[in-house]
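Regression check, NA7 case 292:
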Amino acid sequence: MKPSVGLIGLGLMGRPIAANLLKKGFSLTVWNRTASRAQDLVSQGARLVATPHEAAAASDVLIMIVSDPPAVEQVLWGEKGAFSGLRRGSVLVDSSTVSPELARRSAAACAERGIEYLDAPVTGGTWGAEKGELVMMVGGAAETLKRVEPIFGAIAKRWFHLGPAGAGQTVKLAMNLLLALEVEALAEALALTTAGGVAGERLVEVMQSSMGRAPVLDVKAPLLLERKYPPSFPLRLMHKDLALALDLAKQLGVSLPAGSAARDVYAKILNSAREDLDYAAIGRYWDKAAGA
Ligand code: NA7
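Current build output:
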């Protein structure tokens, strides 16, 4: 029999993940701080409950995908939080991107109550979530991962077991550091090209035939060229991940000079933005510098 699944967090990522779980025939209980976001899912068969506690109590496997560490703490340990509802023998999967330290703390709290825990942040953006083709970075026990693989198969094309609790978050933060720098570097290179009197499209054309080609740049280059930035992976979340990566680096005594400079540029654009933007909006830094 299929395990009953709970999902907490119906944001840009959570909603398509939930839709894929329903499509694959899982019985799904959902909770979201803003309940109205669950409407479409309820019409597709999800059961909406009033508290994180109820979502946990109804589930063999509870997945969380909320914004940041304070959101995870609130959902788990706040009033009517999920932690108190989790049953012995159930599995908690945290797919939010948070610090490895919070992942280890959550894992330890779960272990004390006979609950299994995995950190399993994802990459692939809304595009990957909609297609059920996310990539998951997993920390925790191999046997726990085995238990949830049928569920992961409904939402992801691949998952990597990277070590004990926290290892998934460590790799996720390193991944997003890399992606943030790649897109920032593309925006810098475009600024240099256009300032030199050559259309940005020509740089992208050459890049597509070179070693510099990268799938993330394929996706973000058109946004930068058109200066349109609908959020697929929001700037506010990329900025949060850079801050988490830099915190981790500080704890570990690793210097990240380029990451640190990129964080400042992302922060500048984030602070001046009035709407929710994709992180490719880093390109606005040079529009402003050019007085555009
Ligand atoms: P979104 O679209 O910003 O969605 C964030 C979700 O987190 C959404 O369901 C929020 O509820 C929820 N949230 C945020 N703060 C809280 C608090 N304090 N309590 C409860 N729920 C909260 O993000 P994405 O879906 O793109 O990304 C989710 C994670 O995956 C994130 O860690 C990324 O870095 C990767 P709301 O609907 O606003 O009431």
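Comparison notes: The chain has 13 helices and nine strands. The first helix runs from residue 14 to 23. No diff flagged against the previous build.
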